[in-house]
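Support request, please re-run this one:
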Amino acid sequence: MSKWKKSIFSTGASCLIAISSAVEAATESQLARGELLYSTHCLACHTEQMHWRDRGLVTDMDSLLAQVRRWQNVSRARWSEADIEAVTQYLNSLYYKFPSARQDH
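Re-run finished. Output below.
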């Protein structure tokens, strides 16, 4: 491999590592935000048993997102879409363990 190709390859690999680190940091930040919102606005009424019910309404990421959106509306929390997504991701990481990617309809 020529010096030029090695340089391009090295630069490309460095960029991928940087992008991967940025995505991971954003996910950690999103989970922290979700935890803060959930513990501040939801934990007073919700216990761990709420998320472990056998006949829950949550069966996948789409239904989890729908329930988070529904209850933030009921509580008049006025969360942004990013906040709703953060709480959804937090609950999924803590209780549900669904594949993270939701299907867009």
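Confidence is low (pLDDT under 50) at residues 18-23. DSSP finds four helices and no strands in the chain.
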